[in-house]
Design brief:
The structure holds 2 protein chains of 2 kinds. Chain A is mainly alpha-helical. Chain A contains 3 helices and 2 strands, in the order H-H-E-E-H. In chain A, 75% of the residues lie in helices and 11% in strands. Chain B has a single domain, classed as 3-Layer(aba) Sandwich (Rossmann fold). The chains are: A mainly alpha, B alpha/beta.
Amino acid sequence: MAEIRVNPTRMELKRLQTRYQTARRGHKLLKDKRDELMRQFLAVVREDRELRLRVERALGDVYGGIAMAGAAAHPRMLQAALLVPKCESAVTVRHRNCMSVTVPQLEIQDTGEAAAVGFPYGFAFTSGELDGALTALVAVRADLVKLAELEKQAQLLAAEIERTRRRVNALEHILMPRYLSAIRTIKMKLDENERGNITRLMKVKDLMLSAAHAPQDEDE
Amino acid sequence: MYKIGVIGARDSVLAFAALGFAILEAADAESARTALHRAVRSGEFAVLLLTEDLAALLEQDIARYASDPLPAITSIPGCRGATGYGMAAIRRAAERAVGSDILTESQEA
C-alpha cells in the first residue's frame, strides 16, 4: 500500500489527526446514507416487481382483446377507431429529494374530454372485444406511469448506492488506514527523537560529571 | 405538462393511441433508436414506454439516459407477450445496488 510521505513534525501530526477524524466522521455518515438508500431502494424494487407482474398480466389481456377485435374487423377500421383519441394523457412531474438523489414523481393528468373516459369510436363498426380491451387498458394506465416512475427511481437509487458504497469502501480500506499509518510513523519518529535527546543529555551529564571529578582525582 | 410516448411495432402500440399517448411507431431497432433519441432530445416526454423486444436491442441507448431524472424509460410487454426482459432489468438494478441477486431469493422464499 502506498504510504503518505510526511514530515515527522508535530504540526503535521496535528494536521493528520484532524484529517483522520474528519474521514472517520464522513465514513460513518456515508455508511448511514448507504443503509438508508438501501432500505428505500428495496422498498421501491419490491413495489416495482409487483406492479410489473400486474401490468404484464393486464397488458396480455389487452393485446388479446385487440387481436380478437382485429380479427373481426378490418385493420383499417381498427386504426380509425383507435388513432383519434378523445383525450390526451399528460403527466405532471414533481421532483423529490430522496437522500440527495433527485427522483421524479409522475402524476397522470387528462386533458380534453377525458373526465368521462369514453370510447373514442362509435359502436357500430367495432366488436365488443375492443371495448373490453380498452376498458382494461384505461384501468392499467395509471399503473403504467407508476411503473415508469418506480423503475426510474430504482435506477437512480441503484446508481447512488453504488457510488456511496465505493466511497465508504475507499474511506474504510484506503484513506483511513493510510492516515493511521502516517500518524503512527510520525509518532514513532517523534518518540525516537525524544529518546535520542534523553540519551544525549544523559551522556553529556556523564561527561560533565566525569570532567568535574577528573581534576579532583589529579589533585589527590 | 409532459407527454407519454410509446415506441414499438404498430400492433403493439396502436391500443395506446386511444389513451392519448403519443405513438412512435418503429418496426425495427434502427427506427426505434432514432425515435428514442429524437423523443428524449425534444424534452417533451416524461415517460417513454418501449416494447420489450426493442428495449433489449437498444440497451446501450437506454443506458445513456439512465442517470437523467427525465424521461423515465421503461419496457412493457409487446403484443407477443412478456419476454421477461423487464423483470430481468429490475433484477439487474438490484444486483448493481446490493451486489447480489436478492430478488430471486425472495421469490423462492
